[in-house]
């Protein structure tokens, strides 16, 4: 057998050399230190080492505000209105929260008033109808809710004018009937609890007492007799 020729391949190439051993790093030396690490610093745009940490919606608002603050105000209002109808005061509060300038907010809200996008009177009428028929709230409670939403008292009064006394008394009676079905205890205590429940919904003391007495009288002859024995004057519930 012929011997291996000088210079024959050994599997690493004709003139391959063993790979040089990796140089150990000097203590405390980081060869990639010049590349930096995420989080080393946050620039003025909120980018953290190349990674943006600012919420996308706020960044978009900031960029838009720099170009057109009026467009930003309109977008904020439309997002608020997409959830549910709003009063002018509610929209003004939302704009102020996003640091929209007062004069810009006033201009946009005035325009929305003109075209009917904002209509506190329509809002108040719808609120009264919905909350009375859906929750059984009376005028006093409805007035408080609307005033908290920034609706002018004159507008509130006009909206409540559509809710007459007869309608409220009928609603109070229906609420009393339902409440009596689930209230347990001594007769006097039951009467007081149901009257109190109606009072918390905004019904005057006289209306609440009459409603509960009528609801008791309609249940049975025994309850009717009990209702006659109850003195409304013992209930410290002032009328509206």
UniProtKB/TrEMBL annotation:
GO process terms (BP): regulation of DNA repair
Domain RecX second three-helical: from-to ranges: 119-160
Entry annotated with the keyword Cytoplasm: yes
Top-rank taxon, per record: Bacteria
Domain RecX third three-helical intervals: 168-211
Pfam families registered for this protein in UniProt: RecX_HTH1 (PF21982), RecX_HTH2 (PF02631), RecX_HTH3 (PF21981)
Record region (Disordered): 1-69
Record domain RecX first three-helical: where: 73-111
Record HAMAP family: RecX
Protein name: Regulatory protein RecX
Organism of provenance: Catellatospora bangladeshensis
